[in-house]
Amino acid sequence: MAWRSIMRYFQFHQMICPHKITRVALDMDGVIANFCKAARAAMGDPYPKEPFQIPDGWLDNNDKNLWVYCKGHNFWKNIKPFPWHKKLIKVVDDNCDDWRFITKPSNDVGSYSGKYEWIKEHTKGGIDKLWMVNGSKAYACTGPHHLLIDDNTKNCEEWRAAGGAAYQWSEISANWPEKEVQKRLDEIEELLQN
Ligand SMILES: [Mg+2]
Questions:
Q1: What is the Å distance from ligand 1's center to 30 Cα?
Q2: Which end of the chain has fewer CB atoms at under 10 Å, N or C?
Q3: C-alpha 132 – ligand 1 centre gap (Å)
């Protein structure tokens, strides 16, 4: 039994990152900030009980795009943090000396200032670690020692293609069992400690 657990851990670790991780890029929306809930509210739709990922080209009944609603400084600033955001930041900070928040602003200018203020309000000293990238996040990847934690499949794939390691923190609703959150926090801690 113990042997099976060791093997499973080994396989998990090798799969995600065969190299020692010395840098982390931690995504905001979908990981520590509940963009989905804010976007659904802005579009007048209820927050789903089950995990739900908003497609980029999401349209309302009048064919209006998601980005018509999700804009302005206050929209971005007022996004609620997920209940686990402090714990996740702490796991990264406790186990890695060189890490950054990484986020891709939208084409809306308010997205820049709103995200800046979100970090200022919900983290301690996070402004110094806030990294906004346009286009692909993978341009920020510095090699196999660099771990991206992100909810988006495409971002994780591009990061891996650029030679980095990625942990996909799939979008989860606020009602998700604490057990699942803890499992993910433990997995990330293991990755960073080895
Ligand atoms: Mg995201």
A1: 5
A2: N
A3: 12
